[in-house]
């Protein structure tokens, strides 16, 4: 979906289709996104001076932090990755180095651009795929076809003497051409889809073989060396018997791969990553150092200092070239239940000038989450069980009851936000999901009484003072 022309208000409206509440957070990301578009239209002398306003989201788990960033990336069709700050360690410790987040982002960008180009070339690849399938169905005809074309290109003298062997050969080739055309017609009519053919497939590398140049880990190095050895020895090729239907998918992928210029893909992807890439750093509060005596403080602060230059703007080596991170948008998020944003090192705090606090969800938000979004839970479960022929209907009092339970349990125990609704819905529909195939054609109405009955085993009293969902 093109973001060109969407105002911040329209961006918020798009996010409203999937995310309930959190208006401040949605407005902040909408403005940040619009500013990226505005920057593109600036003159070159000022464009490079306008840096993205990175955002720090603060709020409990399940309040929508990750969903906002994920939907934002889909909205703009931009390269996007979500990483967890706890997965990274400073150089010298076991774990991933922080630069790998940019290499991963570049990989996403490359794959996105490649997929777009493949879609554009899909139609033009069909004739080539068809010829390859016919070569598999009629082994040996490819070579003779080429010989036939070569002979046709040679001009024969009018009085040339034609040997009997040549006449026989021409008849044989004519017969093979006729057979090939018959098979072509059958192939187009779908009569050969289940016939088996032998294809040679190339094993996919287990890891980024060239990542060793870009500063990958020891595992990347070992995997890359193994892939290189397989290529040199030919062990990356494998023959396999598959149906024509499956062979078409394999051959189309190979054909499209050969038609696309990887250097062109890399150039476009690099530009997209540098100008519109989004990195979502989750659990950034887990690397905050609350006090000088906290265990692992050196490692946590080290990770922060390693992340700092990436967010500030630096050049990272990838197997597709050097990527400049200056204009990549970084969105960090954390619950900060055991620490505060001020516990991050001052330099890193300064690189996230926009701070948005997400509020805990209430009964009203839970009710809207169950009903309004395009991917609402009630719609998901209804669609799932309808595949078995069981129709589910939710009454208004059932929606109210589940919304109340979600808010109540979150207030009494660990607040896990909207994820509580998943737990409740699973419990309520557990029996129906298990035996849905036995009730095909029936309609099951979910009301408040039904909800209480299904949750009776985990509620110890009417006041829900102890609830273990």
Automatic annotation (TrEMBL):
- Every AAA+ ATPase domain range: 51-351
| Keyword Transmembrane helix on entry | no
Q: Per the record, GO CC terms?
A: HslUV protease complex
Q: Report domain Clp ATPase C-terminal positions.
A: 361-457
> Per its UniProt entry, which superkingdom is the organism in?
Bacteria
Q: Which family does it belong to?
A: Belongs to the ClpX chaperone family. HslU subfamily.
Q: What is this protein called?
A: ATP-dependent HslUV protease ATP-binding subunit HslU
